[in-house]
Structure formats: structure tokens, C-alpha cells
Amino acid sequence: MNKTIIIQGSARPKGDTNTIVNYIALKKGYDVIDLYSKNIGHYDYNYKNEGDDFLPLISNIIENYDTIIFVTPVYWYTMSGHMKVFFDRISDLIRIHKDTGRKLRGKNMAMISSSNSNDVVSGFNIPFVESANYLGMNYLGDIHVWVENDNIPAKVKGIIDDFIEKK
Ligand SMILES: Cc1cc2nc3c(=O)[nH]c(=O)nc-3n(C[C@H](O)[C@H](O)[C@H](O)COP(=O)(O)O)c2cc1C
């Protein structure tokens, strides 16, 4: 198996982050999951959200893909809430569904942050790098990209092309 999935974490399905996701998905033929379309509740110590979309979604990812590319907009200097909730819920795999969680070991993770400017705070990638490390995943790297007036500037296309060719 050598399959890649993009996980989109924007608060709008067809916004700037989706413009980036579509560019990559069309070029590489990658599958895409839009977290906005999923019903994923906040992490709960009493596992209140056990019947929502999280477990089927992560199980599908684990069974079918080796590489996960997280694509998140920059919201308040960090990842989007949708993406943070997804990461919080991985705790269910550490506390309860441990066999499923262990299957993340050896998989690959990459991250793309997007905004409207060539500017991202230093350390934005730390939660991704450290989470990959904790989960035993290989961290393939990250880039910051930006969308201007609904378009991807030529320079950004170059950055993306270089990045995805190495994946
Ligand atoms: C709630 C919110 C917070 C934001 N915070 C930041 C920020 O801290 N830094 C930044 O450069 N842009 C920030 N932005 C701008 C977005 O990163 C930018 O518009 C991005 O392209 C939006 O992608 P989307 O259309 O997928 O939501 C913020 C936008 C929103 C909606």
C-alpha cells in the first residue's frame, strides 16, 4: 500500500484551504476528507461522543492509507478548531481503541498551513511534529502557503510542487 490522504481542516468547505487542497488532489490523485463535512465532537473524558464520525473515519484512514497530509488554515496563529478537535480525538485511540491507535505507528504525516500571506508564526508546526513523534509516525515536513484573491500565486504553486514531489 502506498496511498496518501489529504485531511482538510477549514471552517468552510470551498474556501482558500480548499483551493490548495484541490490543486494538490487534482495533481496527485489523492483522496480528500473534509473535516467540515463530518460530525466529530470534542474530546470527552467520559467518551460521550463514541457514536460520532471519528472512529469510522480514523479506522478507514488507518486501513487504507500510509500517508496523511493535514491541510489547515491559520486561525489565531494556530491550526483550525476543526483540526484541533480531530487531534484531540486521537486520544480516544490512546485510552480506549488502543489496537487501532497502534496502527498509526510507521505511517507518514505531513502538514500544510494556509493563509492570505507569506507569513506564519515560528513554531506553528510544533503540534504536528510532536504528535507524529508521540504516535510513532514519520514526519515528512511542512510548508506554509497562501491564497491571494481566491488564486494560488505562481510562487506558491512552485512551493507546493516541490513539496509534493518529495512525498
Ligand atoms: C477565525 C479566523 C482566524 C484567523 N486568524 C489568522 C491568523 O492568526 N493569522 C493569519 O495570517 N490569518 C488568519 N486568518 C485568515 C485566514 O488564515 C485566511 O483567510 C485563510 O486563507 C482562510 O482559509 P479558509 O478560507 O480555508 O478558511 C484567520 C481567519 C479566520 C476565519
Automatic annotation (TrEMBL):
Residues 3-150 form the NADPH-dependent FMN reductase-like domain. Keywords: Flavoprotein, FMN. Pfam families: FMN_red. Gene3D superfamilies: 3.40.50.360. This is NAD(P)H-dependent oxidoreductase. It comes from Jejuia spongiicola. It comes from the Bacteria.
